[in-house]
Design a protein that fits this description.
The structure is a single chain. The mean pLDDT is 80. The protein contains 14 helices and three strands. By secondary structure, the chain is mostly helical. 73% of the residues lie in helices and 3% in strands. The chain has a single domain, classed as Up-down Bundle (Growth Hormone, Chain: A). This is H+ antiporter protein. It is a multi-pass membrane protein.
């Protein structure tokens, strides 16, 4: 897996991602503790609302950012957004009221909503080989998991020496270091084949996404992933510090268990995906999330919680890591920034539902009711994915063109059948606006 780091450009971007994620992870731990410091036992509700605001920023800003991703130099965009995030993070230690948390989270995550899709869409252009790109996806998942493992452990160590407010300094350092690494390389910026209006550029990614069956199934999987992830992220601090009456270090340890399980899954996924189809792997991971959520309703000890959080981490990684492969297959190179932005926005719309659901159900009806409701929601996601995503997910499809002239150059692509039919690698674009029905 690590041989993909021989590519200098990808290596710099990968380490930029790792450093920024560790800083973000410290801020995540600190934000949970800040919410508990301000709101006490209702910290889950406060944190759930704060994270819902984060999702609003993601859903609203990402498609607009994707519209401009093909017209602006990627390196300048990524560096500027890193510095903006660093500037906002400087203000977080000085928060004293809940409304201030909400405002700063919106500003910080608006910058992230523009940064992440641009970053993700750059990787397949740097690594066009599918095997290398799959390894990069697993490394990226591993980076997220290492953050989940290292950041809480590092936070637990630092909390023995400093106030949790000081953890936000790590976020600032992470974003500045990330910007420095991005500056050190040249990044490709695909040139659009045709000029498009702002409306077309803003909505194109979402139109491609919703017209592609495998991506509609992916969105349903994302609903299950967000249900499980919200239970862990929002309610871990309440479960550990209120239900089990343990300290902040135990909260960090529980989050680390979740990250450890996810990291374990990321290590085995590249080999697994060489033998098993993306659909089967992702649906299996979704089933694991459902089982874990339902078992959460009966967790009675801290060691049991650690084991269960590790299982949820495994399912979390298996269910979502291959998503980049699906996105890469489903669009032309010039459309990838818009499609990645659409996935970012639509998948986080699911978190917009599950974050406040996890927080407010936990605060009003109890943690058992929250876990049960989220488990049922994840089951809805699994059933929807099975129905929306065909098991025979082919790249090349036979389709018709009733509106093309016989001498149109497009007929030369793929294999031309009788009359107005031909077969080639199919994605939604200007000439293919609807997915073909099975013959």
């Amino acid at each position: 897996m690590l041989n993909v780091l021989a590519n200098r450009v990808y290596r710099h971007l990968f380490f930029a991602q790792v450093i920024a994620l560790v800083g973000t992870g410290l801020a995540t731990v600190a934000l949970g503790l800040l919410a508990y410091d301000i709101a006490g036992t209702r910290a889950g509700a406060v944190l759930g609302t704060a994270l819902a605001i984060k999702m609003i920023a993601y859903v609203v800003v990402a498609p607009v950012a994707g519209a401009f991703a093909e017209t602006l130099p990627r390196r300048a965009v990524l560096v500027t957004l890193d510095l903006v995030r660093a500037g906002v993070a400087v203000a977080l230690p000085f928060v004293t009221d809940v409304w201030q948390v909400y405002v700063l989270i919106f500003l910080l995550q608006s910058a992230s909503a523009a940064f992440t899709p641009t970053f993700q869409a750059t990787i397949p252009d740097i690594l066009p080989n599918e095997k290398e790109y799959t390894k990069a996806l697993s490394l990226s998942r591993l980076a997220y998991d290492l953050e989940s493992l290292i950041s809480p452990a590092l936070a637990a160590l630092l909390l023995t020496m400093i106030s949790f407010h000081s953890l936000f300094l790590g976020t600032v350092i992470g974003f500045v270091a990330s910007a420095a690494l991005v500056v050190s390389v040249l990044l490709p910026s695909p040139v659009a084949k045709e000029r498009r209006g702002i409306y077309d550029r803003t909505t194109r990614g979402i139109r491609i996404y919703l017209a592609t069956p495998r991506l509609r199934g992916l969105l349903a999987v994302c609903l299950a992933v967000s249900a499980a992830g919200s239970m862990v992220i929002v309610n871990t601090v309440v479960i550990v510090q209120s239900s089990f009456v343990l300290d902040q270090s135990a909260t960090a340890s529980a989050l680390a268990a979740f990250g450890g399980g996810s990291m374990l899954a990321a290590l085995v996924l590249p080999k697994l995906l060489e033998r098993v189809a993306d659909r089967s792997v992702m649906l299996a991971g979704t089933g694991l999330l459902i089982g874990g959520l339902l078992l959460t309703t009966g967790v009675a000890s801290f060691p049991a919680l650690l084991a269960l959080w590790a299982v949820l981490g495994i399912g979390y990684s298996i269910a979502q890591t291959p998503s980049g492969r699906l996105l890469r297959r489903s669009a032309h190179t010039e459309d990838r920034p818009a499609l990645f932005a659409a996935h970012f926005a639509l998948s986080h719309a699911a978190w917009l539902l599950t974050y406040p659901l996890a927080g407010w159900l936990g605060a009003t009806l109890g943690l058992t009711a929250a876990a049960l409701a989220l488990g049922v929601l994840a089951l809805v996601g699994l059933v929807s994915a099975v129905l929306l995503w065909p098991a025979a997910d082919l790249d090349e499809l036979m389709h018709t063109h009733d509106d093309l002239l016989p001498d149109d150059p497009h007929w030369s692509e793929g294999h031309h059948h009788r009359r107005n039919r031909h077969t080639h690698g199919f994605v939604i674009d200007r000439l293919h606006r609807e997915w073909p029905h099975s013959p």
